[in-house]
Amino acid sequence: MAEKLTRRQFLRDTAVAAAGLATGLSSVNVAHGGESGKINTSKILNYNPDMEYRRCGKTGLMVSAVALGGHWKRLVEIIGGDEPAGWMTCDIDRRDFQKNRYDVVTRCIERGINYVDACCREEILAYSKALRGRQDKMYFGYSWHIWESRFEEWRSRRKLQEGLDKGMKEAGLDYIDLWRISLLVDSSQHNEAEIEEAMAALDWARKTGRARFTGVSSHDRPHLKNLIEKYPEQIEVILTPYTAKTKIVTDETGLWTTIQKNDVGWFGIKPFASNSVFKGDSSPSSPYFEEDNRIARLAIRYILCNRAITAPIPGLISVQQVDNAAMAVKERRELDLKEKAELERVMERAWARLPSSHQWLKDWEYV
Description:
CATH architecture: Alpha-Beta Barrel
Helix content: 25-40%
Number of strands: 10
Strand content: 5-15%
Largest sheet: 8 strands, parallel
């Protein structure tokens, strides 16, 4: 079992590790198949030559080109039972649930996937447990969103600090790799004082060794662009929607240009448009099983054509889905004309059947 890294050890080693990343790794991507050049791959966490790795902005971390999102929608199709009214409130103490999450994390590690993002209590507790004894294999992205800026009571730096400490204690975490505060979905609704409090809390987390790196999540593109420009030290990483229909705006008005200029790491949520791209129910017995696997790979390949994206973070619910995502990274990157036409049809269908609760994804067709 790996030795547990304490916060004191973390504070001692952070400067050395950062220097190693800066000197040992180039800003170019490390892809499978020999594109690594002179890059010291020994500095890449959980390196696998069959996985591509991308530099996560100014953090210097090299992150697998596909990562593990915290969500587990449709998991009942794998382990059985009833879909709860709120899927995030499912019984995480179920033995078969815990085995599933452990097995999925294990396969991620085997495939060279080295980042997991957890954005609520259940996810943080589930993945901190699945990673116990092997946290040195995956970076941990953290947001206990009900104790963060989305909720009015938790918008002061004091309450944000309190929430982080409570969450880390409950999860048994001495430190986290990334604390990305969940702002309001429409983050422009925050007043300036609330944003300042959030930035102060992020500063505190880094200085005290609780978080190695910091950032925010938001669905408000114009506001997020302004935040990156105003708070470049605190916003090292962002988390936003990004689907297989998203396109890049290359002029100064686009978020993409600001991300590039400020060297920000970027994780994309909902790469499968909340499963709307699929015909089947994600069960192995689905008549659309093979077709949906192919569509998932097409979506990942399309997203990875944007070199500024660190990684899409699909919620993978089985070992097979991990294998399929890893396969997408190894496949030819650029889609041919036939594949482009198929993906366009898939996304038009996905847009037509997108749940009312996820219509905001359409606002992310251009970034």
